[in-house]
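Annotators were shown the component list below and the corresponding predicted structure, then asked to write short factual statements about the assembly.
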Amino acid sequence: MKAKNILNKVYNPQPVEEKWGKFWIDEGLFVAQSFSSKQKFSMVLPPPNVTGILHIGHALCFTLPDIIVRWRRMQGYNTLWLPGTDHASIAVHNVIEQDLAEKGMTRECVGREKFLKLAWDWKEKYGGRIIDQLKKLGTSLDWTRERFTLDEGFSKAVRHVFVSLYEEGLIYRDYYLVNRCPHCGTVLSDIEVEHRDLDGRLYYIKYPLVDSDESVVVATTRPETMLGDTAVAVHPEDERYSKILGKKIYLPLTNRTIPVISDERVEKEFGTGAVKVTPTHDPVDFEIGKKHHLEQVIVIDGSGKMTEDAGREFRGLDRFECRKKVLLMLEEDGLLERIEDYKHAVGHCYRCKTIIEPHLSWQWFVKVAPLAKEAIRVVEKGKIRFIPPNWAKTYFEWMYNIHDWCISRQLWWGHRIPAWYCQDCDGVIVDMEAPQKCKKCNSADIIQDEDVLDTWFSSALWPFATMGWPEETQDLKTFYPTDLMSTGFDIIFFWVARMIMMGLKFGGDIPFKHVFINGLVRDFKRRKMSKSEGNTIDPLDMIEKYGADALRFTLAALAIPGMDLSLSEERMAGYRAFANKIWNASRFVLMNLEGEEFEIKEEELTLADRWIRSRLDRMIEELNEALEAYKFYEAADKIYHFIWHEFCDWYIELVKPSLKEGNKTTQGALVEALDGILRLLHPFMPFITEEIWQHLPGSQKSLVVAPFPEPNMAFRNEDVEAEMEHLQKTIVEARTIRAENRIPPKDRVSLWVKVKEDEEKAMIGRNQIYVQTLANVGKIDIVNDFPQEERLLKGVVGTWEIAVSPESILNLEQEKQRLEKEISKVSLDVDKIESRLRSTEFLDRAPKNVVQDTKKRLKDLQNRKLKLEESLRDLTLP
RNA sequence: GGGCGAUUAACUCAGUGGUAGAGUGCUACCUUCACACGGUAGAAGUCACAGGUUCAAAUCCUGUAUCGCCCACCA
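Structure shown to annotators:
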């Protein structure tokens, strides 16, 4: 038979995944149509860093929307999922500069031009790596539309946005205290600084007053910055210091004197209540300095080394070396009063974890508040929806308190700032293209700003610039705004918020309707994954070991909105087993088909056939609902349960007798059910479903574009489901009796079914083949009473009783124990419900249907208890 | 300092007012002709704690504890 030759006993994912992954792309099945009468569904891929390799967080962040887009595609939408990569300035710099460092060089040695060539070469060499990995995962991306944030069109879009914002006054240049990472050699925006609590020290230093024997003691965590102090500040209402206000102080280790000033920002209770003010190396001090027009003495440079102004003894020293020296010298002069342990938050670079240095310099900024206003409104109004919704709160909190965004970076790999400075008149020219001469004084002596833009500045344009903006392309018309953005909570500020602002400002609309925020992937012990801990799970390893389908399904099954997920290989092995289960169930189906044509004759459908139709139909509806709500875990759980425990455990077993008779209608129903299952499962497990589907009679080009099943009320049948449920309970009860009494599986027991109603007799009569097959029963007798002469093992199923008569000898004690245990369990429930029903308050106040259900339940349980007790009595009779 | 989230079976987690669930693991039995990456049956929970609301609370409210995350210019 065809199937036997084709399907192996154990499913092997690798060749299947390779084959279909290539096929889908070669056939252009993921290519979106710019013009289409169909409804569109669009997304853009959060562009992974070009330096990156696929990690498990990506796998999650990309699998979930892929499930959605595949589902929508099958539903007939004109889908676009647009891929691309991000140039990631700092990350690329780190890689290339490390390379250079190994050769004893710096970027300055090679120069900008050569450096950029190295970066591009590097990009060409490794940029494709993550693309291959994305394909392995099965993401249904439209590769014909792939973009890169540094490609020509994108760069044009970036310049366009910069120039417009500048002309509108929303981008400006300022001399300001910003965060600088000495290691990365660039300034950073506020959100690129991570605050970590460090065990530091608080140093109390004596500052002698001029013309006095007294001194003021100030407390600081950074003694080295004292070299740049230009004042000591106290609170205006602090009486302890009122008499020294306006006096001068000798700044130790320098030959400068500084004033004592007052400012409300000083906390009286902290330290000594007097604070040293270093406007050039502390953000608060910077503000105080501005207000009081203090001198700005820069003592630490951008690379973390002490400057000339720090004094001869300190210049050139690293900031932390300098700290030691300063302390030593203060100690020698008797000016170090005391040292306390002190835990405090210190800013670190989010890329390289180096301690950030506040740095006074000329930088470019975006005035964000005006852009934020509309971005807040669209979320408030529900035009953009966060899933889960509580993330909107995080978004609002940041947006309401938003600061201006420093966008210039002292790097080379990136979008160079389109600003030129005239060397003659100091004029600034901001333009799309390089100007020939100064617009003010016509001088040709102009030079371009050395800096590039923050990578996130260009990422912010991703949803519309990828579609060809600022040209008015057909793609923009068709696919913008997009429908869904899937991303991590850690970049809500970095990316999501900025895309919303820029999308509204330049795309003319919101960039996306839904933002799905996925959780963090943790290890099986719920620890964060990190390379240093060695507990990372590499998705590519997992794909190799368990298959991409198993990985995808695992991620979906664990994706509870708003929750981090705890990933274990065990779990993945479980879903590989699931894939194997489907594979073998399909083998079974294919092996039992006779020919390619199946006519399903309604009148020939068995109870089992009609049952699986009804159940599958319910499944379709539930799956659609779960996916609409982005409840991936629920969808995965439901389809898993349906396939394994309804289709395999019950339906396949139930159809066996019918198949043996060569019932073509049942064969048809079986194929129909399997076909439906494969379609439902395809978004989650695209590879295996495609492979099997291609073996089914009547399959078309690809499951990727096969219609997703729609609920069909004609298949829904409550009566059939109820009838089957009763049979299932009967079968399970018989099996339980067998198992608990250690009746050997080979023992084809006889079964008595004791029923009163004619209708029930007919029901069990027409379905006895099912009970016989699934409970391994030899013959069934439908009786009004059990025969007295036989020693029987009895059970209760709803309104009827069953009795098993084994061929072998019984262990009465075992059965007695079983019944006693069962009775005590039922008794507990009975007691609980009786006491509830005794409460008049319950009877008066609870809804009618609840009271009725409770009463019915009590009756059933009492009936069950009674019958079990009878069985026990019969058993103990001589 | 502010905000958010978690606490349910051995483990990882569902479950938002009316009979406590799943997967894995565990126990017993079974290689029967889809599958041992399998089948059948079973054991297993004071739903963190303390109050409150309600006829009824894992679920709603208040508080406590523990853990985690984010934000924040007390040096």
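Statements collected:
1. Residues 395 and 492 of chain A are 7 Å apart (CA to CA).
2. The radius of gyration of chain A is 37 Å.
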